Amino acid sequence: MLKHKKGWFILLFLVLIISIGSLFFFIQNTHSTSNTNHQKDSSKKVSSSLPKKTIKKNKLISNTKIDSSHWKPFKGQTEFPILMYHSISVGNSLRIPEAQFAHQMQWLKKNGYYTLSPAEAIEVFKTHKKPANKIVWITFDDGYKDNYEKAYPALKKYHQKATINYITSHFGHKNKLTMPQMNEMRKSGLVSIQSHTVHHEELNQMTDAQQTFEFKNSKKWLNNKFHQETSIICYPVGRFNNQTAKLAKAAGYKLGLTTLPGLANESQGLFTLHRVRISPDLSDISYKYLLEHGM
């Protein structure tokens, strides 16, 4: 009888031990699963919130990537007009009246010209192909506020692309473009903002170190403000010396623009490209001649 009771006691004790162990395992497993789910949820929150700015930034940068697979190759050297505008106003030979500029944008559209972005201009030189038979690159120097107020409406109306070469130290000047204006134009996909150095001083009077400062710091400012990789440097007053092209390339630019007259072509060197100066009161015949011959 005693042995029988002792057996039952041992059996109950074993059942109790097994039950406690199972309960402990269940609690631990539940806690582990909860932590895992919490980590997954946290990971989802991080991945859905943190990258938004990065994705937006990368999207802006990716807008400069060009698919030139459908472009047509051409024979001979790369050559096309880079038009040089400044202020859309009146008063001197660098200022173009608003009505004239609008008419010229309409003329380009009517006559089948394709306007290039900076990335497309680089691609033309790089691939020796072009997106249309007649191409042109429209540039503005300095970054005047009237580029937004008077030129941008015509660019939108006739869907023409243009590049504004901006003097970064002039940001905040009353007659220069504001950040909201530049951002609006950039977001349209029609206007790019590139470098016209920091201080707009003649590079041929500078040391190598001074030129490098102008190139790198203007590039850094534009990259930070617009989340882009600035690729074009436009030399102030078109001046440069024997070291300028080398220093511009070392600073990370792809093309350099001068004020030397004529069509841009690869034999000039990618960092000493010529441009076509647009003067006030040009007739359509004169405008056509400049586009075809450069001067």
Mean pLDDT equals: 85
What's the overall geometry? globular
Count of DSSP H/I helices: 9
**Helical content band:** 40-55%
Encode the helix/strand succession as letters.
Answer: HHEEEHEHEEHEHEHEHEEEH
How much beta, percentage-wise? 15-25%
Radius of gyration: 32 Å
* Multimerization status: single chain
Distance between the amino and carboxyl termini: 124 Å
Give the tally of β-strands. 12
Report the uncertain regions: 1-6, 20-63
Q: Provide the structure class.
A: alpha/beta
Q: What profile does the largest beta sheet have?
A: 8 strands, parallel
Give a description of the structure.
Residues 1-6 and 20-63 have low confidence and may be disordered. α8 links the parallel β9 and β10. Strands 3, 4, 6, 7, 8, 9, 10 and 12 form an 8-stranded parallel sheet that branches. It is globular, with a radius of gyration of 32 Å. It contains 9 helices and 12 strands. It is an alpha/beta fold and 295 residues long. Helices cover 48% and strands 17% of the residues.
